[in-house]
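Hi D.,

Good news: the full-assembly prediction came through. Inputs first.
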Amino acid sequence: MAKMSTILKFTFVASLAQAHFTFVRLAHNGEWQAPTQFIRNKTEPFEERSTPNTNNNERLYNFPTFVSDYPESVRCGRDNMAHAANTEVLRVKAGDTIEIAHTRISPSDWADNQWYDCPNGRGSCDPNDPDWTMDFNHPGPLLAHLSKAPDGTDVREYDGSGEWVKIYSLGFDMNEDGSIHWLAYNYEKLPARFIFDIPKQTPAGEYLLRLDLIWPGLWEPPIYVSDTPQIYATCAQILVESDATGPLPEGIEIPADLNTTTPGMRTSLSMYRGESMDDGYTYPGGLLWTGEELVEDKPIL
Ligand SMILES: *[C@@H]1O[C@H](CO)[C@@H](O)[C@H](O)[C@H]1NC(C)=O
Ligand SMILES: *[C@@H]1O[C@H](CO)[C@@H](O)[C@H](O)[C@H]1NC(C)=O
Ligand SMILES: [Cu+2]
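Then the structure:
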């Protein structure tokens, strides 16, 4: 039964009001900031260019982005550059702690009680849910990347076309029976919290901090069974103060390295259903920087 309900949930089409999700808010050292205060907003509705495997190029606020949409949309969300100049830059110290929060509620329905009255100090919640739970409707890894604005460039003018270094990922745990449990998705129940540090070794400068949850595409070689991967990117603008003297390690480029065939971006039908992990599965988004070294970002089994 559990399996059956999982399959049904994966194929449900959510209502427009609570369709999909967007990361909209961050806490700095435990203190929640206003929604979109340091995070570039999105434009809705927004017309993406025509993309394969998607029948609707007009996207609303919480809709997914596909890897073949405009590169800017894949990097930091739909029309984000139009909002960059009006978005504040959060001043942090290397080593500071960030928490992020998402919402599934459309901006036209945003109300204070879904940000400021949430149980247990969470940064977002759904007052219409009996448990105030702000859930996710898709499984997949949650990722955070940093991209440094080129020297002399204001981060509010930076489009993210440089390299991106992964500093955090939250994937799945393995159940005793070999099935997998995505920690953000949690079967549409209360998600894990997303708390991570800006590595102490991060060089001083202005950065984009990219937040995403990727629903990998379903791949049954040699053909796609379902849609391409779904991406839910937003970017915060931060200024990192730091005494670090080392360089930032090599990162990935977006969208080139978040494509349909790059590691982690697609799974077998069995993994899609949560029944098992594909051999050698690696989370998407490149290597993970611990601050000390770059490591392969594989599930901990
Ligand atoms: C963010 O964008 C949404 C949708 O375009 C809009 O409704 C909302 O007012 C914007 N928020 C801010 C703070 O600009
Ligand atoms: C993504 O992969 C497709 C198919 O291999 C390719 O045509 C496309 O150019 C790639 N996109 C990017 C941005 O690299
Ligand atoms: Cu979706």
